[in-house]
């Protein structure tokens, strides 16, 4: 069985803790590898090595740092197929979906190539007699990222690309469920010219997370995952004096107005609800049709589309719509929530609880499910399912639909399908959700905007990627300078009024 490593000081490094986690092949249910789970001492050693490497990297001018990222982009494109296959093998995504995971990370790296411009400070000459004031953006030092299993390429790049562009050293703790691609990314960064120690990958579980949060050298931590863990990391990181941004769970709604193109809305819901087996923080998991007539017509369109979905392993070709869930525990949890929806009175209009894929009976596949007449008190509405399950909550009118989403604990993403520009503008202005789609099913912003949710979907003051990333990974230093003209007037003991 393959035994993975950490990536320390520019090379693969075996773990020493003698603790390991299992990595599954989600399609077959077999354990295909094991990953070392770092001890606190191993994490501390990796951080110390990063701290030793960081000053020289920070002293490298921003343009040269950007050139490393430029080379990295070329290497990503060269190895795209290889990376996608490794990602699909561990996570279970289809190959097109895996390539999309890599592509959306690559786009953030491309944005970070503009670091020389984004790191420029400000300057005011003659702010007072012979006085100039200017500001500088400087790196924090050593920063860390704790990233989830569902986007093992994209989210690590969202974290380490801007951090490195700013001159920081970065310690990545990827998900222990699918760590191979993050390791491959670190290797490509090394090939691109990144100095040893500037990017470290330490695999691990809660012990590694706590070691990162407790280590005083770490100046900032970025996290993506479930809301309970996001709250834990945010609270502990802030208590330890670190800058912290944490992104948690989601319950993304799509409001479908009576004037919407219902075929377009149904197609969007199927793609956004069932793509990647629903293991996306931006998946649409709740459809909110406005009015009974709209709801009936939407359900009528959804059922045949959902029943035609092809579920299978990535090896069966690009026409597979989605693959297995990532672990047996994930499958068990999703099926339990489906059963709870039935018991609590929701109508299960597409029931795939007996789904089994011939030849892959031990895999973690879950067939597509569609619930109708879901109410906000049900578990399938209150909890993030993270599986191929779409819930329909019927709203009597527009105001009820908007209130439903605004009252929800989560505020990651939301969409509305309509032909009414006035309703769309009102919706975008009023809704208390971080990312809005108008006739767009998954409103993930492009790399030069920022990504982040509200309410229990996000903790911290700054979002991921875009300009906010450069603010998060730097601190501002302001200099007030005066160069005497040669006249000596003696000391002053009060603030001099500016002329």
Comma- or semicolon-separated keywords:
499 residues; six-stranded mixed β-sheet; alpha/beta; Aldehyde Dehydrogenase, Chain A, domain 1; single chain; 2 domains; globular; seven-stranded mixed β-sheet; Aldehyde Dehydrogenase, Chain A, domain 2
In short:
By secondary structure, the protein is α/β, with parallel strands linked by helices. The chain is built from 16 helices and 23 strands. A hairpin with a 2-residue loop joins strand 2 and strand 3.
Query: What's the mean pLDDT score?
Result: 96
What's the shape? globular
Please state the second-level CATH architecture of the largest domain.
3-Layer(aba) Sandwich
Strands, total number: 23
Q: What is the CATH H-level superfamily of the largest domain?
A: Aldehyde Dehydrogenase, Chain A, domain 1
Distance between the termini: 76 Å
CATH class of the largest domain: Alpha Beta
Number of helical segments?
16
Nearest-angstrom radius of gyration? 25 Å
- Overall number of structural domains: 2
Could you give a short account of the major beta sheet?
7 strands, mixed
Strands in their spatial order, largest beta sheet? 15-16-17-14-13-19-20
What does this structure look like?
- The protein is of the alpha/beta class and 499 residues long.
- It folds into two domains: 2-248 and 457-479, Aldehyde Dehydrogenase, Chain A, domain 1, CATH 3.40.605.10; 252-438, Aldehyde Dehydrogenase, Chain A, domain 2 (3-Layer(aba) Sandwich), CATH 3.40.309.10.
- 39% of the residues lie in helices and 22% in strands.
- It has helices at residues 40-59, 62-78, 80-91, 95-112, 115-118, 154-165, 180-192, 206-214, 227-239, 262-274, 292-307, 328-343, 379-382, 398-407, 421-430, 467-472; strands spanning 2-3, 6-8, 11-13, 20-25, 30-36, 123-128, 131-139, 142-146, 169-173, 199-201, 218-224, 243-247, 252-256, 284-289, 347-350, 369-372, 389-392, 410-411, 413-417, 435-438, 454-455, 458-459, 474-482.
- A seven-stranded mixed β-sheet has the order 15-16-17-14-13-19-20, sandwiched between helices. A six-stranded mixed β-sheet has the order 10-9-8-11-12-22, sandwiched between helices.
- The longest helix is centred in the first third of the chain and has 20 residues, at 40-59.
- The protein is globular and about 85 Å long.
- The mean pLDDT is 96.
